Amino acid sequence: MAIRILVVDDASFIRDMIKKQLRDRIPSVDIFDAVDGNRALATLKSHPIDLILSDWEMPNMSGEELLANIRNQPQYERLPFIMISSRGDRSHIIRAIELGVSDYLTKPFTAEELLKKVVKQLKRIGKQWQDTRQPAATQGIAFSSVDVLTGKPSETSEAPPASAPTQSVNHKGRAQLRLSNNRIFACVIREMSLQLIHCLVPRGEGLPGIFDQVVVDIELSPDEFARVNGYIHAIQASEARPDAKSVKILVRLVDNDAEKFDALSRYIAKL
Q1: pTM for the model
Q2: What is the dihedral of CA 138, 144, 150, 153, to 10 degrees?
Q3: Domains of the chain, with CATH numbers?
């Protein structure tokens, strides 16, 4: 039996990103979407839904109003409802709990965080499945130094470090890392999520160290860049050999700027 999930958000790129992440990991999932609470209620009347993922801030009818409306209807009292919001302060979470939310997800979030909460709520209502696909964390994202030139992974690519995100968007992209000492490193983005970026950087003198603060200039288009703050989370050789000509650098993003988050979300959703 298919699992039916309703995604509610006024931003189409956010809906598309969430739908892709769910379809990548949940077999035979049926996903419905709505741009606000009013459309969500209309969908509920015409389709049986197993779980709702809803943004808090929406026009016409907010996620808060949608949740209150649903919990006032006896047939939906136990329907799993996960609230998504960029506002993770305690007062908002308490308010959501008072309204009867099942769980709360703060933006930005990783695909793994999303899936973990979805699985928990589906299990609560007896909806389970066997995920036979290989988790993204075990898929090769380490590439040999020749990939900087060819743009293709080598057959000897090794597994990523254990700290790598378990689900994100694989793609090629260009960026540069800017350190506080004004050193700049051009890099190729090999994997990216809203919280982590895996870069391939040519080996050389003066490489950054663990926990060094860095600004990542991500080329969104030939005329647009996103400048995001972060720090170096991990560094690893790109190949299991002492003469490797490049290194893999994992950058954890710490920027909470809403405009930057929206720009990165649109960028990832297009890939």
Answers
A1: 0.54
A2: -20
A3: 3-124 (3.40.50.2300), 136-269 (2.40.10.220)
